[in-house]
Queue: 4 jobs
Job 1
Amino acid sequence: MGWLRAVFVAGILAAPALAQEEPEPPMSYERLGRILFALDDAAQPVGRGFQLTISGVPVLVVTDPAADRMRAMVPLRPAEGLTAEELLRMMQANFDTALDARYAVAKGQLWAVFIHPLSPLEKDQLISSLGQTVNIARTYGTLYTGGAMQFGGGDSPGIQRQLIEELLEKGEEI
């Protein structure tokens, strides 16, 4: 095995250096604003944040530079009247299908949210997470999904598969 290790190490040492991408500058309120205005030229600054619309869904993005935090939020409905089944389903989705976005309750309201430290947030990560937040808002009450993929090991695939099984069963009668 000594020769294999020598070949492996020699190969690594002889391998050409991979091109290094320039690191993105830290996310700031100003940089965040430039990105959001690129996504929606009708976006509006509001306090320490912004209001914009993505695919017809109103999104509020708030920042706290002193705490180095940001939050993107979409209001869904009043929290009052949520059933135990709905709450359970949202928690299941938070585990496997909501991805970087989450369902949350605050101030008597149900929200679709994305919460992240501000400065390490990268442009593509922000854009993807805004899309996921809008997707979980749009699929609330149905698929409860961020839209990109599912993280395995949760309950959502079985629940979603149940609908397909029910439809296949109904289709057997045709």
Note: Confidence is low (pLDDT under 50) at residues 6-13.
Job 2
Amino acid sequence: MQHIILLGDSIFDNAAYIQQGEPDVIQQLRRKLSEGWKATLKAIDGSSTDHVEGQLEELPKDASFLIVSVGGNDALDHINIFNESAKSAAQVLQRLADIQEEFQRSYHSMLRTVLSYGLPTAICSIYYPRFLDPVIQRMAVVALSIFNDCIIREAFTFGLPLIDLRLICNEDKDYSNPIEPSVHGGEKINNAILQVVKEFDSRSPKARTVVYTNGNKLE
């Protein structure tokens, strides 16, 4: 039996952003599970990397697989950078480097805490938003690259499966608003989660990263 635990932010805790009566991510996942399997939502809307440790408190004793999707709110905390003035491109790059180093430390610390529980774990990249303004959208995609670089690096460092939400949520209908997943997006996210859990080989003598995309995987 598998007991899947979802950790992180509103990518998983999206009930507030879909229409009343529609299934949120955890409901969708539970409907897809085989008999005897379970899923628990520990993710909390608005959480950043610093909040995941608290989500691990009172972890179910039969937890068997952890899925972490966090980092988008860390990025949002720095959204004012779009309005900051700079005297040179070098100054902009220095500012971005500072933000990336801060996130790298925070994400690495969070992930080491998650892995200390000794359970199979997969992590997710941060998907691209869907802003209507093409200029803001373009800047957001570039800015997110410094956060995703950290997440991808950690996946390969620890040999963890990586669910690449950038390639999974790749349609406008995957979003209920510019930054939250819709029911359609939740369906695709859960398909990737189940693929990861079902294909994970705990007998493998060497940890390795497999990247899961929209129905595919890259090894």
Note: The first strand starts at residue 3 and ends at 8.
Job 3
Amino acid sequence: MINIKKLILILIICMITATLGCASLGMQTIPLDQLKMKYADAQSQILQIDDINIHYKDEGQGPVLILLHGVCSSLHTWDGWAERLKGHYRVLRVDLVGFGLTGPAPDASFYQIDNAVNFFERVVNEMKLEKFYIAGNSLGGYIAWKYTLKHPEKVEKLILVDSVGFPQPLPGLIAFASFPIIRIYARFIMPKFIFDTAVSQVFGDQSKVTDKLKDRYYELAMREGNKGATIDVFTEFRRQCSDKNLSAGISELKPPVLVMWGTKDIWIPYTTEFPKWKKELPTAKFIVYEGAGHVPMEEIPDETARDVDLFLSGKM
């Protein structure tokens, strides 16, 4: 049974619907060509696997470093790292299926973790990558460590940034949008003010949450199919985050691991989730960023990229 807060929110949305246009409510779709003009550049490339066109960037030379973003995000969340690390590494970052310019999977079963890992395996094989470093944030971290469990021979070092790893209460936006009644409508209506709130929540320092940043997150979510894909991912998260076996295998990770976390992360809370990683991976390296939120690689790229370079180069 839906609670009173959800009923109130539905009523608010209905009232806003009567006074605002489709754009403010996230009912529109932004054409892919229009998004490419704004969010693709000379470094953008496309890798086609089956009917999915994966948008990725391949920059720099040296040891390969793959970067995987989190939910509601895109490869642009790694802009700061790419700029700072491409002088020493070949930095590969992708728009995960369901997000960014890549767009949705053919069906919702794709977003089950084993299927997502298997698809990432195909990406690695298509790119003919033999050995590499891998870093993942949030959902990207989940895919990264699950892939590492399956292919420890390929991953030389693993970096987890505020990563999914253990059963936990769902973040507010994911809990609301994946609620059975709400998700029927959320596939078509994703109001910008809700999205803007979510972007603000993943940053610790609100002075860094610019209109340009909020527009990027929102506009890429308006790509054809991405709203539905987002809800499919949220729905899968609802199932996964109550699964007591979610963390199975973490203690068995073989490559060296660096775990990075922002103390103001409220999506995967530092106070409750970070200690679980320290317990399961006692030999890993751990770095905490005071005042940073859920996406410290985007919020404080200078500091986090420096630490990544120290870890990968063996100086940490």
Note: Residues 4-19 form the longest helix (16 residues).
Job 4
Amino acid sequence: MLKLGEKIKSLRKQKDISQEVFANYLGVSFQAVSKWENGNTLPDVTLIPAIASFFGVSCDELFDFNIYETEKNIRAIVDEHSVYWYSDPEKSEQIIRDGLKKYPGNETLLNCLIGVLSELHKNEEVISIGKALSETTKSDEIRIDTYRIMAMAYKEMGEYQLAKESIKRIPELYFTKLEVSAELLEGEEKYAAAKQHTTLCTVSLVDTLWDMGKYLKEMGESECGDAHIKTALRIIDAFLCDSEGRKDFTVTPNLLEAMSQRRDILMGLVRE
């Protein structure tokens, strides 16, 4: 595998541009670029997506990784970090950071990182990484999710207007790939999409009813607010009951724990 500096130099010469032009694009000095290419230093991790975008390659290609093996390994890292998402977010964060040491600048891992950083309320780092990622990623899915996570971080930081601006960048969609797959595909593919879509819709509906109920109670409409919350509780109970002992109903222990936690919180809201 070529060293990163050698790869950058090779791509720059293929593009037939000077170090100065490349440096201006990145907002760094040409001396910094020279140090990278000579192997004296490495670019900051937040610059990796921009470098890859400039040369029209993926971050994996920039590091000369085997794409198939990389995707498989990245998937394993993501799966491992998700196991600890609710129970030990600090460990989840460390798993992703270790993955980024092996696959610097990988967009999937960066997206996971800002997600878990948001859970840990490390909002300034979320914004720093999110800005670079949203501007350089070629993946619509990652870009949209990045805007969502940034909006959450801005809201928690008290930057309400910036949160609204991030939300405006998220397209309004009235269907998802899973929904269309569940409707139009056949056999096992249809069923697998329907299972996953059902889980996502259940969580989304519970959280939306929670938000509505909480708002109405804050506005003094306790009866209407409680009605929404009680509906959310009935959905959670049905979900937990339906998933119990079902081999064909794939739900992770983390999700079951998260839904149980939601139930406890909502029960408290009803008693208030």
Note: The chain is about 75% helix and 0% strand.
